[in-house]
Amino acid sequence: MSTVEKYFELVDQSQQQFIETLREIVGIPSVSSDASRRSDVVRMGEWLQARWEAIGAVCKRVDPGKQMLQGQELDLPPVILGQYGNDPSKKTVLVYGHYDVQPALLEDGWETDPFTLVEKEDKLVGRGSTDDKGPVLGWLLCVETHKQAGIELPVNLKFCWEGMEESGSEGLDAVIVAEADKWFKGTDVVCISDNYWLGTKKPCLTHGLRGVSYFHLQVEGPGADLHSGVFGGTVHEPMVDLVHLLAKLVDNKGRIQVPGIYDQVMPVTEEEERTYEGLEFSHSALSSDLKRDIVIHSDERDTLKHRWRFPTLSIHGVEGAFYSPGDKTVIPARVRGKFSLRTVPNMEPEKVAQLVTRYLEDEFAKLNSKNKMTVIETHAGRWWYSSPDHPNFRAGARATEKVYGVKPDLTREGGSIPVTLTFEENLGVNVLLLPMGAADDGAHSINEKIDKRNFIQGIKLLGAYLHEVAETDMTATA
Hints:
This protein is of the alpha+beta class and about 475 residues long. Helix content is about 35%, strand content about 20%. It has helices at about 5-15, 15-25, 40-55, 135-150, 170-180, 230, 240-245, 270-275, 285-290, 300-310, 350-365, 390-405, 420-425, 450-470, and strands at about 60, 65-70, 70-75, 80-85, 90-100, 120, 125, 155-160, 190, 205-210, 210-220, 225, 310-320, 330, 335-345, 370-380, 385, 410-415, 430-435, 450. GO terms for molecular function: metal ion binding; metallodipeptidase activity.
């Protein structure tokens, strides 16, 4: 029996023990956006540090500063840095994950207490089970199992666990920049397990993420709210101007109307076209998840392209307008529309902001309104793209095939994980996204879960990946 097979066997034997450990940490309500839960977030970070130190890892707690949250000045949760093994003859793998979770209340529609892990048939239901406590725990259990089995870990393992990912990773970038040539020095490759399969049956490797540029579009008019019966039809109404401008941004087929916005987009190559063949994706499954068929495109390949590799614009809401139940005949004095663009290779955030601002200024001028309009960019995160032919990805593919018996789909994702680019740019090494969870896990939603199969096989996958990295020449030309 090979060392990897011995590892797999012990993982299978330890399934229930692993589930109980996941139950323990799901029970820590580490909600980073809730000031009243800040002590729980810190407790979760300290749990991880203590557990890693118990098996011989060297850990370093970094306190990244303070923040104002819900009227209180709070310490940001600690970033837990660690290292297991320091053999100069071995490669060094850095893994990242987050131990904070999204808010969850039973009254939101959960069928069970969100902070009590419940086994329902083949599912493990609880907040954080898939995002991201299951994968973060998976790395710990991987190393613990190697140690229990008497198997030497084939690489040096470094890790970075943060407690603010669900609240914008505040403070993390500064930590990575400061530690790039210190704690992270000597890193050969990075692996992140904080995303999901394209479907529910077939594993994947992810080699691209879209960026996001977020805007507030503000229209100001009178000095105070007005009565529509007195002033309607006699003044330029900010809400009317705002709705007109928002409607000009994107059509009902998802086509962005900002001139020049598509000029920077990387063309689709024949090689890329081939990557869409045989993927585990269907419109019927998508419509089932959506609870209704509202899909724009008739071709599944086009749907994936608009999800992964074309820019999109979404309108998110309006601040300052009346939104409570009932009727209110008010003309709001100042309103803000909120929208974002998901950007793709080779779009530059600065150029996107220029195009969006110029277009809205031109459209507002056409209204001949006496109101004042302002475009405010509140966030500009860049896209990330990596070659799936890099040796790090090939190691991930071989590990996936060893565990699941199939070649993984090669996917990109429409969302953003900004830390991916931060690691790549500051450490100068390749980053692999190696998901554990499935497309229907419901991260951020009610009844979040991870399938038992994905949790247990995922722990095997993380271990198999480390063994493959150890045997792979990372300097080979991708």
